């Protein structure tokens, strides 16, 4: 776990060092330093701070309140500190106010969190220097559709969702894509979430002939369904979305249940060395830690490459591939990730990992 007081002290130490001796690339790190979002801000600070210190660059920490109309002050702080690039930005509210001033100052911004499609559309229309390390709206559904069409097209498919806005919209996107490809689910339904058992539901799935089930709902509900299907000896291959990345309680998830989700980068080969180095310093590489480390790495290397080539920094960010602890990262001309970061993963009792073998 990340200690908020320790992170605050760490940022203060780096800030003091930066004032006395500016080194390398000056990178702004924008994240909440307290309040309800303080823990997420501490994750951003931990990952970015670790990389900036390792690379010998200079960190400028700016508090993010995520309040409406707070972005202009954040931008002013970055401009006054003469940063070359800024990362973090947990909230769209910050970016909306900051980006016009960052454009005028030629300071690119890399967000590790904000997913708003409208925000990026406005950025491109207005020439704001926003780059998104977070997945954009719609990319989760796009990956789920890709997986189902690739692995399940020949099988009887069921689509069920929990009635929430996200669950319903996600499942509807999948259904529309299946129909556009000439596939019709054998069963669709809205289930009642938060139940202690779902035996009636899994029996209905069996009567419908479904063998593959996509669930637009929470991990706890999927765990109940998987347990009850096993108890009833009903063979169901279950796939969930990113909501599956949650605590494995109160009922543990059955092994081999799959999810299309953002990976736990610390469990992957590319993230392992950085995760070990962070743990050696007392920081658990959870949440935004490794993505923020990657953002700081990209910021530093892009700024160095731009200076060496005599090119604007934002031009260097487009099309360049950066090797990071979250994998190879490149931004498109639309300032989005060139590859969908969602992956097909399988639960193995202690984490979600890439499937060991193709879907049976």
From TrEMBL:
Residues 1-22 form the signal peptide. Residues 25-349 form the Leucine-binding protein domain. The keyword Signal applies. The keyword DNA-binding does not apply. SUPFAM superfamilies: Periplasmic binding protein-like I. Belongs to the leucine-binding protein family. This is Branched-chain amino acid ABC transporter substrate-binding protein. It comes from Rhizobium esperanzae. The lineage of its organism: Bacteria, Pseudomonadati, Pseudomonadota, Alphaproteobacteria, Hyphomicrobiales.
